[in-house]
Design a protein that fits this description.
- Pfam families: Lactamase_B.
- By secondary structure, the protein is of the alpha/beta class.
- It folds into two domains: 92 residues, no CATH class; 259 residues, Metallo-beta-lactamase, Chain A (4-Layer Sandwich).
- The chain is built from eleven helices and 13 strands.
- A seven-stranded mixed beta sheet has the order 1-2-3-4-5-6-7, with no helix packed on it. It has a six-stranded mixed beta sheet with strand order 8-9-10-11-12-13, with no helix packed on it.
- Strand 4, helix 3 and strand 5 form a beta-alpha-beta unit.
- Helix 1 packs across helix 5.
- The longest helix is centred in the middle third of the chain and has 32 residues.
- The structure holds zinc ion (ZN).
- Zinc ion binds next to loops.
């Protein structure tokens, strides 16, 4: 009987659950790419540290993990530290907290979550534990509800899927079909990860805002904006005008996830961001960008998918007809030329742009 490697075994479990439960595409990608590669490749370190000057430190996930967990930014001021995004890998979050403590004795006073996705919010409680619970959690006003209504189910699904994958792997280990002599070790690591996930209590924001919030300190201007629905119903960007740095959440990642997105207002949001005076971007996922080139790429992607969707709706095409008419590779060269992982992520995410564009235009009519 043909046996499947552990990686495919996990994918099989997760994909079948995806079909039956409608599990979020984001979670699917993070498991099929992230968990298995985390288990097999054990990349070290789990993030790279980039000092952007004037106390701005970006903790960037290395490329093999860039689509499955978020980057973190620490803004170290004279008297305080402000964190942007708490990621989902708790081991990485612990290492980031240790790295911050090694650089400054100032406390983390604020943790800003750019949006509700679990890979940007799950480690919030670690900052509470590490800094005596004194910090203020900050987010868009919608985050108060979405943490409960959306992040919690995403976390629950993550736990459920990992438990199911472990159970399957244990069954395989007990059978005579196992050809992976590291399977027991992988199961042990997965179990340790599962136990950590079960300890997570999601933290809601203490301080929320609608359009703009000024978190400036005496030594630095720090401005938070929400320009409308975009990647989610409540995306926060953090702009440091003196440093000309934008911390962008997932608004124009290398290949953003559009499954929870609002393409028309997303495009309007990006055009407003374009007017800000920044030179460097710390994205939610992937490497630091220079200038506005990546922003322009996503503006083009949204503009063209919306144009095509508008044409389809005007011509009374159904969603199915539209989806079968599109050239899914149109933006591949521009967005996914970096490596194989980019191509996989592109193939996984691109249809969501067309689908959401079609649905949003259809809804307007
Ligand atoms: Zn996101």
């Amino acid at each position: 009987m043909k046996t499947l490697p552990f990686k495919l075994l996990l994918q099989g479990v997760i994909k079948s659950r995806f079909i039956t439960t409608g599990l979020l595409a984001l979670t699917l990608l993070s498991h099929t790419i992230g968990f298995t590669e985390t288990q097999t490749a054990q990349p070290n370190p789990v993030f790279t540290t980039h000092d952007l000057g004037n106390g701005v430190i970006a903790f960037i996930k290395p490329d093999p993990l860039r689509f499955n967990d978020a980057n973190i930014t620490a803004i170290i001021n004279k008297e305080s530290v402000i964190i942007v995004d708490a990621n989902s890998d708790l081991n990485a979050a612990e290492q980031i907290i240790a790295a911050i403590k090694s650089r400054t004795d100032k406390p983390v006073t604020h943790v800003i979550n750019t949006h509700w996705h679990s890979d940007h919010t799950m480690a919030n409680q670690l900052y509470q534990q590490a800094f005596a619970g004194k910090q203020i959690f900050v987010g868009h006003q919608s985050l108060t509800n979405t943490i409960v209504d959306k992040t919690q189910p995403q976390l629950d699904e993550t736990i459920e899927n990992l438990a199911a994958a472990i159970k399957n792997a244990e069954d395989k280990l007990a059978s005579d079909n196992n050809d992976d002599n590291t399977l027991a070790e992988k199961i042990a690591r997965a179990k340790a990860k599962l136990e950590k996930l079960k300890t997570i209590n999601l933290v809601k924001p203490d301080k929320t805002f609608t359009n703009h919030l000024d978190l400036s300190t005496p030594d630095r201007r720090i401005e938070l904006f929400n320009f409308g629905t975009a990647h989610t119903e409540g995306d926060t960007i953090v702009f440091l005008p003196d440093d000309k740095i934008l911390i962008a959440g997932d608004l124009f990642d290398e290949i953003p996830f559009a499954g929870h997105g609002y393409p028309e207002s997303w495009l309007a949001t990006l055009n407003k961001i374009k007017a800000l005076d920044f030179e460097r971007v710390i994205p939610g996922h992937g490497s630091i960008h220079q200038g506005k080139q990546q922003l322009e790429k996503i503006i083009t992607l949204l503009t063209k998918t919306l144009q095509q969707a508008s044409h389809a709706v005007n011509n009374k095409m159904t969603l199915e007809q539209f989806m079968s008419s599109i050239n899914k590779d149109e933006f591949k060269q521009s967005l996914a030329s970096k490596d194989e992982l980019a191509k996989r992520a592109y193939n996984h995410f691109i249809e969501d742009f067309y689908k959401q564009a079609y649905l949003s235009i259809k809804k307007d009519q």
